[in-house]
Amino acid sequence: FFLKYIKSEDLRLTHTEFRKQAGKLDRSVVAYLGRAEREYPPGSELVRLSESQSLMEGGEVAAVLEQIRRLPVGKQDCLGIFRDIFYHWACVMRSKFDLLVLPHHTQVVCLLAFRYFLEARLTGTDPHALIAQVGTGEGKSMIIAALVIYVVVA
């Protein structure tokens, strides 16, 4: 399932879906998601995949892993430590299961929002806790694991 649909993920649609939730969210969370959209816009995806690309072939997989490590040219890397986390996660999954696993756009945006929350200087009106509601199949375990690594390392 994952390999079948990974090439059709759409970062623009991901941001649109997050914006649809804005009316139900605290203004600070809306700001975090807005910042994620500005810093991680369509065109800045972690990996760009083509329809013809084989995600099972060794050379193609190695090229994708190299893309994950590559820093953006001419702009700041908004992913920071998450880029390394995603790379090492992909390498471990490949070595354990011989499968290329990449983060979904929803996972990346969610992790960026959590990072902005953790970096924010709290005022009296800001939330003091942040909870993510993640649907089935959106990778809760990966989000939690990546966030734990971020908190420990950062």
TrEMBL record:
<protein>
    <recommendedName>
        <fullName>SecA family profile domain-containing protein</fullName>
    </recommendedName>
</protein>
<dbReference type="InterPro" id="IPR027417">
    <property type="entry name" value="P-loop_NTPase"/>
</dbReference>
